[in-house]
Structures are given as C-alpha cells and as structure tokens.
Amino acid sequence: MIQSLPNLITVGRIILVPVVIWAITSGNMLLAFWVFVAAGISDAVDGFIAKRFNAQTEFGAYLDPIADKALLMSIYVTLSIEGLLPRWIVIAVVSRDIMIMGAVVLSWIMNKPVEIHPLIVSKLNTAAQIALAALVLASSGFKFDPGQLMSVLLVLAGGLTIVSAAAYLVEWMKHIASEPEPGK
C-alpha cells in the first residue's frame, strides 16, 4: 500500500489541474491560490513518503515531473489568457518545457536515451516560477498590489527559464555527441 501512496498523491495533483484552471477562469482567485498551495503541499508529501518509506517507483519518477509541469504550464497559460501574466513569460516557460520533452523523445528515438537530472539552475528556475504563480494568484485572490515584487519575480523567472533552457540544451548536445559506453 505504501508503495503506491506517493503515486496516488501525484495523480491527485494531476486531478487538481482542471480545478485550478476552472477557478482562475471563473474569477475565483482565492480558490485557485489555495488549490495551488494544496498541490504544492501534495508534491512535498509524496516526495517525503517516497523517500522516507523507500516507496520510490519508476512510474512515480516519470509521473511526478509530469504532474508538476502540467500544473505550472496550465496556470501560466491560463493566467496569461486572463491578462494577469505577460505573454513573453508564458512563451519562455512553455517553450523551455517543450524543448526538454522534445530532446528526451528525440534521444529515445535515436536510441540514445538521456537521463534527466535536475540542474541547480533548473531547481532555482522552478522555485522562481512557483513564486511568481503564487504571487499572481495571491495578489488577485487577496486583492493586494504586489508592487515591484511582481517585476522582480518576472525578470528572475524569465531569466532563469532562459538560462535553464540553455543549460539543458548544452547537456543534451554533449550527450548526443558522446560515444556510447562499452556494452551498451
């Protein structure tokens, strides 16, 4: 049972994606904020359970980042459509993730599968993207002006997104150019 609990929590996070999109498009930004917070807590909880109880699975290793990306990309696109985020940041975030997914698929097709290991810049990027989404949802839901913090987070998230995309591209190009290990 404990083996599947982190995966069930992750599936629950995926189920929250249409809920948060509905909340944003319905103008219920407070609900959207709290659903986003719940999704974030569920991400921490499933990771803790998986590590603490040695309940990590290959399925979960693939599912968890898919859930995270589905949530963040959906929120960014929806917030942009609602006029709450500028298009350029959404284009940067979505393009980066599509580039990474495309590189993974292309590597697999070329019979040179690549293992994705999060880079430090990628972790910082994700934190900045989450902070920006949380700020937009919170400021809209709780009706406060985020002031310059919004501009700072926009620039930070945008810059880290571009640097992270470039870093992954460099790593992927090194991988594709490398010779296969003996025995593989």
Give your account of this protein's structure.
- With 184 residues, the chain is mainly α.
- It has one domain (5-177): CDP-alcohol phosphotransferase transmembrane (TM) domain (Four Helix Bundle (Hemerythrin (Met), subunit A)), CATH 1.20.120.1760.
- It has helices at 5-25, 29-52, 58-81, 87-109, 120-141, 148-177.
- The longest helix is centred in the C-terminal third of the chain and has 30 residues, at 148-177.
Brief summary of the model shown:
With 184 residues, the chain is mainly α. It has helices at residues 5-25, 29-52, 58-81, 87-109, 120-141, 148-177.
Furnish the topology, listing elements before pairings.
Blueprint: H1 5-25, H2 29-52, H3 58-81, H4 87-109, H5 120-141, H6 148-177
Low-confidence stretches: none
Distance between the termini: 35 Å
What is the rounded Rg?
18 Å
| CATH topology term | Four Helix Bundle (Hemerythrin (Met), subunit A)
Average pLDDT over all residues: 94
Number of domains: 1
Please state roughly what percent of the residues sit in beta strands, choosing from under 5%, 5-15%, 15-25%, 25-35%, 35-45% or over 45%.
under 5%
Biggest beta sheet attributes: none
Would you list the SSEs in sequence order as H and E?
A: HHHHHH
CATH architecture level-2 label: Up-down Bundle
CATH superfamily: CDP-alcohol phosphotransferase transmembrane (TM) domain
Considering DSSP H and I runs of 4 or more, what fraction of the residues is helical? over 70%
According to DSSP, the number of beta strands is: 0
Question: Which CATH class applies here?
Answer: Mainly Alpha
Q: How many H/I helical runs?
A: 6
Shape: globular
